[in-house]
Fold this protein.
Amino acid sequence: MTIAHADDARVVVYSRPGCHLCETAEALVAVICAETGDTWARIDITDDADLTARFTDQVPVTFVDGTQHDFWRVDAVRLRGALERTS
C-alpha cells in the first residue's frame, strides 16, 4: 500500500505524542537522513481519525518513498539500504 509523501519527504514517520518507540524511531531516522542527505517528515496520527484508526497499534510506522517500510522499530541497516536502493 502506498501513502503520499508528506512535503515530498523520502522518509515519513507516522507517530503519536508520548510514544517512546516513536521518539526513538524519529531520532534514528533524523540521524540517518542527515547522513544520507534525504528528507524526512513526522506525521502525528492523532490529527487524523483515519490515520489513528489505521496505525494506532503499529506506531511508529515508517514509509520510504511512499511505501511502508517498517513499524514499531526502525532498523538502521534496512533503512540505509532502502534509501540507497531507491535513490
About this structure: DSSP finds three helices and four strands in the chain. The mean pLDDT is 90.
